[in-house]
Design a protein that fits this description.
The protein is an all-beta fold and 329 residues long. It contains one helix and 20 strands. The chain has a four-stranded antiparallel beta sheet with strand order 1-20-19-18, with no helix packed on it.
Length: 329
Amino acid sequence: MVDPISDDSSMCMKLTKHVGVVLEPSERNQFDSGATTFGCMFQDSINSDFYFYYTGSSDATWRKASIGIAKSKDGVNFIKESKPAISVGKQSLTPTVFKAVGRYWMVFAFSTDILRRRKIGIAVADAPMGPWEFVKELAHANQSWEGDSIDIGPSVARSGGNEYLIYYSNVTSRGIARFLLGQHLHRQIGILKVTFPKSGEVTAEKWGKNPLAHLNGQSGTWNESLFCPGYLQLDGRHYLLPAASTYSMVNPPKQYLGIIQDSSRFFEKPSPMQMLLSFEEAKAVLPARGEIAFDTPSPLLRENEIWLYYAIMDRADGIWKTALSIMKQ
């Protein structure tokens, strides 16, 4: 059974309007002809323009993935750049962009081998449109819960000074042992601390209390697995918005979007998780022939509303796109 939605009155976040799909794949033979998805919204404080950094796939089989930029004046209508902003190895995906120490930084997942084992890297630019320069690898899977691949959520939290928190998740779990033992995929969230020293190179370390296993629901519940979370700070509270799935129940797994809040950006004692959007409700967003899947929710605070951008796919065609819904307290 699915856990009941939390009735915690201190949160009470609700999606009140579905704008629908705002970013479609390009026509044939483009770097994003197969998908325009797994992205983050960034609003520049200098000119107030909106920049959506997204993952573009060359085709529906994801033979090649690069990170593109779509620019907007209103957050709904976007103009895409014809060439990717950055492409490292076989796949570059799930970017998050923020400004620190006077420059623009992009943290993203990438893979350089045919097995698509994802690591986390960082790039830098002097303007939101780039040009973007790959700097270095920040982290790779080296803990048992991470399996052999990790990727990130589309948001970042400033922890203090020049330290920033990146919320990441495993893509696999327990490597080959999971398949040999017949265990289902179990996705969890960790925190990567990224520091920008006044001089010298950017550094990163994993938080010692990873993974945040207490955020996951029990086996068989809607939030059994959590991954690629967005982050939002509002009225002194911290909100984490993960994608969620029940890999243990059915194949393909059912997916959801959730939200939790805490007084701490480390989410050590959060409130119960609230369901924001289920696959049953999602046909109001994307009329679909098959079941709908979600990923990478990216929240943007706009006056008294929260605009939530997220990846969405009709499993009948396997094409990932980007949708927008509006959320209020």
